[in-house]
Amino acid sequence: MRAPVLLSLLLGLLGLLGLVTCDTYLHNPRGSNNRLNERTAVRRNANRLFDSQNNNRGGYNTGDAEDGAANGDTKKQYSIQYYQSGPETAAESRLILEWTNQHGCGGSEDSSPHKLNCDVVIQYMCQNDVANSAIENNDQANKDDILRDGTNTGTQGYQNPNRGEVSTNQNNNNDNTYAARINNNVNQIQMSRGYQESMIWYDMCKYREANGGLFTADQRLNNGNLGYEDASRTRQNPNGQRRGFECPEERDYYPYWFPTLMTQTYDTEHQTTPWIDMAFLTSNTSRCDVIKKGSFNQNGIPRCVVDEGTTARPRTYGKSITEAACEAESGTWVTFHSYLEILTDITTEAACNTKAAADKRNKVSWMSLRSDEPNTKKCVVQAPEVDCTDAPWTRVNHNGNSPDSQGNASRYDAVLPYFTSNDNKRCVMRLRYNISTDDYDPFNTGSSQNQDLQNGVVSPVEQNPLVDVGASARPLRLALNTNQYGRTFQDRSHVFRMLPRDSADMAGKIIHNLNVRGKRGNIVQTYPAVEYDFIPSRATISTADLVHVQWTGSNTHNNQPNGGDGQTGDAGEGRGGTDRSNFLEMQGEIENYPAPFENTTLWDKVKSVTQPSATAKDIAAGFFSSGYYCGAAASANVCNENGDQVLGAGTDMDDLLNNAPASYFGHVLKFAEKTTVAYMCSRNNNFSNRSQKGILWVVDPADAAATRRRRGTTNRT
After folding, report:
1. Residue 590 belongs to some domain of the structure
2. pLDDT tens for each residue of 519-528
3. Is 624 contained in some domain?
4. Strand 496-499 with 425-436, pairing
5. N or C end of the chain: which has fewer CB within 10 A?
6. Cα separation, 250 vs 231, whole angstroms
7. Cα–Cα dist 316/274, whole Å
8. Torsion angle of C-alpha atoms 164, 170, 174, 180, degrees rounded to 10
C-alpha cells in the first residue's frame, strides 16, 4: 500500500457517469480544445498542449490578422488584445468568460439541488511580452521560455529522466547524465510548435514522486523507468501519458501542494508563475476558506531543493515531497512564494513601499521569494486573493444556457489583472471543470482505502461492479470507470495580449470588453463550439465607463471531414471557412437592417480613446469594414505608415467582407452622453437562422447598477 503523504483538496470525484466525451468548452476568450489552425472539423492532435478529456470536435482556431490564412507565418497570426485593469480599485477591465459544461453544475442541497457536485477553476498564465521578431525570426536563444501558439500542430519533443539521475546524493556523474538529457530536450524544442508550461516544469513533475496519500480506487499507477510512481501518473492518467508540458498531477488536483514556479530562477523577462488563480466557482462555498488558504496566489508552498552540481544546467529539484525525505536526499525543504511579477527596477524597500501604496489591486511587498534566502529581497507583486463564489447552475447532459447567467451560457464576469510594471504581457486563460458524486466522502477518503485484496482492503468503488438489487434478482452491472471517478475536464485559450493603459483618458475608468464569440458554420457543424454572436449581446454601462469593441477570427474554419460524430461543413455567407464580423448601428434591436451613416446617432456621441484624432466617420468606417478601411480620410493620425485603405480611395471592400481582415483591434470608445445603441453584423445575421446583434444601454453613473439589475444584463455592478 502506498504510504500516505499529503492529502489535498481533490479537484473532482466523478460518480456514476460512465465514459463521457463531450465536456467543457471555453467560448470567450476563444478556447482552443488543442486546435491550432485545422481546416478539419476535428482537432489533429489532442495532446498538443494539454489534456482536455474533451471530444475531438469543438474549439476555435487561432486568429488571423489578414484576409488569408496565416499558415506558417506568425506575422499573420492575431492575438486578441485586452487592456489591463488600472491600479485604482474602480479601474477594472471587465471581460465576460463564457463556457459550456455538459454534465451540469451549480446548486446546493438547500437551493437548486443537483445530481452531482461541481467546481470550476479559472486561472491565467502570463509573461512579459516579447518582440514579434523573436518568434517570427525563429529565435533559438529563448525558445524554451516564450509562450506561443506555434504554427504546426505537433507536440514538443521530450526525453524522460532515467535511473542514472536518481541517487541519495547528486554527484557529478548524475549531474552529467541530467545535463546531457536536458540539453537534448532543449535542442528538441521547436519555435514552430505551441509552448505553454515550460519543459523544466514538466521535468520537475516527471522526476518528482507522486503524492502517496491520494485515493486511486482499484487503479494501479504504473512505475516509470525511475522505479517509483512519479507525479505524471494519476488515477485519471495511470500510464503517465504526456500532453504538452502539463503536469498531470497538478492538472487533476486543486489546490496543488507543490509550488508552480516554472523555472529555477526568477525569470522576469519571460516565464514567471505558470498559473495564477482567478476564480474558484463551486456548488459548496463552505470550502472557500480552504481554497483561499491553499491557493498559491499569496501563500508560501515548500518543495525540495538540492545543491547545484558542477556542470551546465544542473538539476536543483529533488524527487521528495516531504521534508524528511528531502533531507535524506541531501536537499533543503524550501518555501517558495509566487508572484504576479517582480519589479526589477525597484531596488530599495522605500521605493517598493511607494509602489505598494499606489497599487490598490495587488499585494506589493519587499520580501524574499525563498525561505533559504531571507536576505535576498525583491519588490514582489502578488496576485489578489482568489475569488471563491457560486458556480452557475446548468442541467445535466446539456451544453447550453444557465438561468444563473440570465439565459446565457455559463459565465464569470472576470476582472483582468493589473501589472504594476506597466509592461505588455502575453497570457493564456485556463478553465478546469470538475464533477463528483457522494458515493464516497471525497475529503476523507485517501490511500488507506485503495484496493488491496491481499490485505483485505476493498475500494469503496470498483471498475464495472455487479450490484445486488435484492428480491432474488440477478445482479446488475454498472458502467463505472474508476479512472474517471473524480473527473477533470479542461479548455484553454490561445495566447492573448494584455496591454497597459497608455492614455490618460483610461485612468480610473472601467473598461468593458465587447467581443465576438463563435465560428463559421451552422449549429450542428460548429457543435460543441457555437455560432457567432456578440458577447455581451446586452449590456448596461455608465457614461463614466469605456468600451473596447474588438474581435478575432480565423480563415480556416472550414469544418471539413473527418467530422467525428458531427456534421461537417461551413454554412454561412462569404468565402468558405472564413470568420468575419463588423459592427453597424441599427434603429432598434428588433430591426434587421443597419442604418445608413447619415441616419446614425452613435458615432457623433463617441470618441476614440485609442485614436483621439479619429472623426465619427473614421470610427464608423473601421467598424463597418472590419478594419479594411482605417478611416474615411487620409490622415497620418488615423492611418498608419503601411498605407492602409482609406474609404473612397483604392480597391473597394468586398460586400461580404471577403477581402477584409478576420480580426480587428477596433477602438476603445468613450460616450459623451446617455444613449441606447442597437448594433448588428451585416454578414452573419441571416434572419430566422442566425442573429449576431446586440444592444448597449449607456446611462448615468448613478443609474447604472439599478438599470443592470432591472434589465438582467450580466456585467458587474
Report:
1. yes
2. 999 999 999 9
3. yes
4. antiparallel
5. C
6. 8
7. 18
8. 120
